[in-house]
Please model this.
Amino acid sequence: MDVQLKRGLLDVCVLSVLKDGESYGYKIIADLSEHIVISESTLYPILKRLEQGKFVTTRTAEHNGRLRKYYMITQKGKQKIEEFLQDIDEFFKVYDFIRRQN
Amino acid sequence: MKANEWIEILEKGLGPLPKDERDGVISYYKEMIADGLECGADEEEFVFTLGNPVDVANKILADNGEKIFSKNDGDCAYENADTQSPTQNDGAWIRGLIAIPLYALTYTLLIILGSLIFAGGATVLAGVIALPFSIVEWASGTVINGAGLFGISLSALGVGLALLIGSIMAFKSATKLNGKINSWIKGERKA
Model:
């Protein structure tokens, strides 16, 4: 899959996971792994980007005597999912057009 | 490889990053490993799936470089001054050395063409000066002498003009050639 396309797609995938409730790195990968391939090193820049763009907020909580960073979706993050879905609708119209010609 | 080793190599690789940035990456991977082990993964196996820590560090450094430059909102996310090939101008002195005979050639050419321009100008001048004399001579009765001189001065005018225009054009080309040699030495692409 095209790198840029996959990057944008993964951003929304992560947001979509967080829409179900706060989560942390390892679990995000586990939840996504049945739908799309994502590695630990791929997730890191995504989470960082989403945090910097204020699409998610974070909190650090203790878990089994160590710290774990939890990610929560913001209103802006939810809006990004909506925008993505609208874009995809338009995308599919173009897709249908292209398919018709082939 | 044990988790500690993996983290240690990663941390070394992230050396150029600011400390808080580096700490963020390290705690991310430490948490990831701890969660993996907690879910029953084998330490060495899990660390293996994280990939080579040197590669992981390099990728983060590259991403970070991209971020710094995308602040400019330009299209040149990766056009960092550091990424420009430092070897670009390495051949300059060799080119300079090769260019010495080339320069000798073009400067000689310029001098020759300069003299030709002068000669052309002088010939034209001679023709122009001789022309009225020939007419006077012709009119005063010495027709053969006059006609001969008239012919000679016209020829001188023509030859001189041709020489003048031809050598000026050649001089211009030679100057351009010199400029090309100059930019070639400096290692510019459009030499």
The two ends of chain A are 20 Å apart (CA to CA). The interface with chain B takes residues 24-27, 39-41, 44-45, 47-48, 64, 66-69 of chain A (CB under 8 Å).
